Amino acid sequence: GQSLEQPSEVTAVEGAIVQINCTYQTSGFYGLSWYQQHDGGAPTFLSYNALDGLEETGRFSSFLSRSDSYGYLLLQELQMKDSASYFCAVRDGSGTDKLIFGTGTRLQVFP
Amino acid sequence: SQTIHQWPATLVQPVGSPLSLECTVEGTSNPNLYWYRQAAGRGLQLLFYSVGIGQISSEVPQNLSASRPQDRQFILSSKKLLLSDSGFYLCAWSVRGTVRELFFGEGSRLTVL
Question: Helix (H, G, I), strand (E, B), or coil: what is residue A82?
């Protein structure tokens, strides 16, 4: 089976940088995805890492280390609107098109 | 462009009543379709997954069922709701053969009383 672990909550102030970690266990690895979900809303895709290294998309970056079964989402120049839950996700290890989500990290940005 | 619609957005149902949530996708063909459930303040639990018409994979044994009568239509049902069925239900689709990105519907918030 698969399991993904994330911190339950992270707090930061506007303008700061925050890192949300994700460790995973899966029998077969096909890439690590990140999603953002505002309260009451649907998750939206942020980024995807299939290979080791850093992927940058504007203020958000995502990192992957396959040897460590670890990844993180880096949010820079935090804004109040970044307050949301963030989920990492991996494809089912058996190779099917199923996506398994982590427990989620609630980010609260304070002024 | 592709769109996904899910309804109803909100519903309150008594214990023991039936349930039907519907999801349709437009602008794409042969999508993977998914039903997830999210309890308040919790993660997303995969309930059902489908790669084609009539092909449903059940991930969690429970009193819910899913059907895919058409390529871009996915229905979540129950004959008798339980209190524990309360939650936020999310339909999603992805391009066949990849789960790099899932596209979610707006969600259906179910309260069972």
Answer: helix
Residues on chain A touching B101 (C-beta within 8 angstroms):
33, 45, 48
- Contact at 8 Å (CB) between B7 and B22? yes
B104-107 — which CB contacts under 8 Å span 24+ positions? B104/A42, B104/A43, B104/A44, B104/B4, B105/A42, B105/B4, B105/B5, B105/B6, B105/B23, B106/A41, B106/A42, B106/B5, B106/B6, B106/B9, B107/A41, B107/A42, B107/B6, B107/B9
* pLDDT per position as a tens digit, B76-91: 999 999 999 999 999 9
Token couple for A87: 């989920």
A 59-98 near B (Cβ less than 8 A): 87, 91, 96-98
Residues in A 10-49 with any Cβ partner in B closer than 8 A: 30-31, 33, 35, 41-45, 48
- Whether B59 has a pLDDT exceeding 90, the answer reads no
- pLDDT at position B61 is 66
DSSP A96: S
* Contact: B43, A100; criterion CB under 8 Å: no
Which residue from A minimizes the CA distance to B49?
A98
Tell me the one-letter amino acid at A94.
S
- Residues B5-21 have pLDDT tens digits of 999 999 999 999 999 99
